[in-house]
Amino acid sequence: MKVLCLTALALLAQLSHAALPDMQAIVHYETVSQGADGVEKTLRYSERWIRQSGHVWRERLNAAAPHRHDDDGHQHLDFAAAPRHVWRDAKGELQVEFLHAAKQERIAVAKREWSDAGFDGSWARASQLVDASQLRGFSKKRKSADVAVYRKAGKTLRWSERWQAPLRVSLRSDDGKQRETITVAPQALPAGFVPPWQRSAGWPERDYLDTLD
């Protein structure tokens, strides 16, 4: 199935350089694709998403535990569904790790393996869900003091200035046979919130390449 890709969406120029506000959200993804045979397929899933103090956590909801292979007896992690933690270190360099909850391990992924593990290397998309760095040819309409809507040829972004994150993203192919929608329900973090990456900080670290054995 050919899925419309969010990386094609370049939106919203001249963002503030201030730190992004802390938040949590449930993010719902839906992709509808109609094949040449006329059959329409729908793909849906949801993620828990947390942003706090330069860290971002993404976790697929309702994902099954890693499966066990009969040939080697190992549990192999599904990196598309596993919890992912992305942050900037003291030098400003991006760091990426995945969490293997069943084995209580942190899987560290070096930059050269990011794409293999499903991370595209974009801090903008990790921290704001879309690449909010440019706005070329998109019309803008202010809906309220907080919300602005950007549109261009089958692409619509409903953007929250308060949260510096999308509330809804809609993409549609020129022929209308592929549609992708992302809806975001942002909330403030509760008082005393303990982020999940702190709870797993003491887990032993394993290199990503070791998980491919």
TrEMBL record:
Secretion signal, residue range per the UniProt entry: 1-18
Keywords linked to the UniProt accession: Signal
Protein's name according to its UniProt entry: DUF3108 domain-containing protein
Species: Chromobacterium alticapitis
